[in-house]
């Protein structure tokens, strides 16, 4: 799979399918492989572009300086490398922050915007929680216990009712061959805490879809909708029986929401 040098990093990315470009921007501690449950379906309709954000996966070096703006710059630079004038940007959680920043600073390059389990600013509770996750990593917490702690926040109650699914997810996370370093994770956490684009939302021109999981603890749907509906052209898709990792828990419903939005003018 290809890489390209952008803004001082060797950016790893994948492209699947063909058609109008759709770039998926992953969240905290996630990379291109986090989209596996939905890539096959989306790539039957669109050219799906999956970058490993700086600080994750196969993008090098991992411990590079990181801000939301730099992640956004990398995404726009990747479009330039691919000779694509614009794309729909779909961002999950921290990736939603980056997608918003692209829409604010690079409006000509963003045809539509899909914001998943995110907002325009992180809450004080989340900032404290994420800093705790950094501390647990640095303390040498057992890897399985650390991921379990994260899973309690990002998956729904229904997810934990299936022990096989839970164990498979833990095994994938623990055995993943391109793990994020503790330093890179901490830099992403700092980037999230520093970002706040609420004042710029009314100036966003892109037609926008907000997707929320009904059980999302990190970005509760009512809070996200209240903030993000300051964007002039928005619609909302609320997915029941899903929490923060919506595309992993409810991939079919998720892709249905995305495809309906993208086919609607």
Automatic annotation (TrEMBL):
<dbReference type="Pfam" id="PF00561">
    <property type="entry name" value="Abhydrolase_1"/>
</dbReference>
<protein>
    <submittedName>
        <fullName>Pimeloyl-ACP methyl ester carboxylesterase</fullName>
    </submittedName>
</protein>
<dbReference type="InterPro" id="IPR029058">
    <property type="entry name" value="AB_hydrolase_fold"/>
</dbReference>
<dbReference type="GO" id="GO:0016787">
    <property type="term" value="F:hydrolase activity"/>
</dbReference>
<keyword id="KW-0378">Hydrolase</keyword>
<dbReference type="GO" id="GO:0016020">
    <property type="term" value="C:membrane"/>
</dbReference>
<dbReference type="InterPro" id="IPR000073">
    <property type="entry name" value="AB_hydrolase_1"/>
</dbReference>
<dbReference type="InterPro" id="IPR050266">
    <property type="entry name" value="AB_hydrolase_sf"/>
</dbReference>
<feature type="domain" description="AB hydrolase-1">
    <location>
        <begin position="21"/>
        <end position="251"/>
    </location>
</feature>
